Amino acid sequence: MLNDVQPIPREQRHLLGFDLFLLWAGAAVAISEVWAGGILAPLGFVGGMLAILLGHVVGNTPFALGGILGSELGVPAMVSVRLAFGKWGSYLASFLNILQLIGWTAIMVIICARAGDEILRALFGFSSPRLLLFVAGLVSTFWAFLETPWWKWMERVAVIALAGLSGVMTFVALRQVSLGELLRLQGEGSLPWGAGFDLVVAMPISWLPLVADYTRFARNTRGAFWGTWWGYFVASSWMYAVGLVSALTTGRTDPLPAMVVLGLGSVAFAIVLFSTFTTTFLDIYSAAVSLLNVLPRLRQKVTVVLFGVLGTLLALVFPMERYESFLFLIGAVFIPLFGVVLVDYFVIRRQKVQPEELYDRCPPIVWEALVSWILGVGVYALFLKVFPGFGASVPSFLAAGGLYWAWRRRKGTWS
């Protein structure tokens, strides 16, 4: 694999749509997504499922569109940001993306360590969360270190195994209640529906700043778009639903403890481990790629190890009680940012880009894009605080993208 930010030649692109389906399905089958589904319990079953399905439709669409920039231009996500924001603007986006990816790495290894420790303690009376934390960080870093030729086969095996294991987890979550009782389950209403919707949208959006890192290896754009869209939609909606049902029926955000009680502790432990590895390696690898956008002379494998270590160390102190706030922060930053990027590429440029516009002819910074982004962040914060029942994701996306479009049209800077 190339270790710089130059476009991937067509002859070196080898991922099929099915490979990307498995890649993003593997990323979505994660205990972090089950936990996020549990946060929606105050909405009740019907309200929660509505938020899950609509939130994934809304979040998955720009997520998969971002993948088109990778499949058509052959460049990583943060390099594609240069089109709208300029080179220095993309450096700012890269820095923020690196921070969120290190945070995600920490969250994933914490969840793995906590869940794995609870299972091992119940099965064998053994408890060592810090040991599990370091094992999760080490294996995830190693997976990222192997690079894409290995990902295709590792993901195929891991995702097929995870699908079977998750089927057992789903059965355990649903066995507590009949369908009729499930439909009647009400939440206590402490979470506005719009805020719950934003929490769902934020999950696929958290992958948007790195989706092109993988679709740049796709053989064709159609397969890249639909493989990405459906892979994440199916698996993430499934995991959210499992978390929602578990929280409504047992008061816990995941069904793993119930699996242990039923004698399925080894299955629960396998889910924890495999789901951590298939998700966390993406965060580590893309943090390294984002840094290469700023410092292309660095060696990619060195940066992979660096961010694997940083994420694992952060896990020692990361406050998991701020998980919900972390998701909102991701939405506030990256939804308006890619509102600008996607409007620039699909509406203004109409997907017509010369390679020099990413490199030699790339301006240092595009102020219209930066100001539009900042405005979009402000709109997200305003709606989240003042109109939480409405939802902040769509208004912030439209505000940032719309303002940028208006400025570019006024200046006549259509490509």
UniProtKB/TrEMBL annotation:
Belongs to the purine-cytosine permease (2.A.39) family. Keywords: Membrane, Transmembrane, Transmembrane helix, Transport. The gene is cytX. GO terms for molecular function: cytosine transmembrane transporter activity. GO terms for cellular component: plasma membrane. InterPro entries: CodB, Pur-cyt_permease, Pur-cyt_permease_Fcy2/21/22, Thia_CytX. It comes from the Bacteria. It is found in: Membrane. This is Putative hydroxymethylpyrimidine transporter CytX. It comes from Candidatus Caldatribacterium californiense. CDD domains: SLC-NCS1sbd_CobB-like. It is a multi-pass membrane protein. The chain crosses the membrane at residues 21-43, 92-116, 122-145, 157-174, 194-212, 224-248, 260-282, 302-320, 326-345, 365-383, 389-407.
